[in-house]
Description:
Layout: H1 16-25
Amino acid sequence: xxxxxxxxxxxxxxxxxxxxxxxxxxxxxxxxxxxxxxxxxxx
Length: 43
């Protein structure tokens, strides 16, 4: 799962740290990728 962090008004209250914490709390750290700004992902 890739969590895309968009810097728009309705998403700006959710930080990457919050996404990481959510993944850890829910046992998803092995399946969750939170790319940095300007990251390029190839599948």
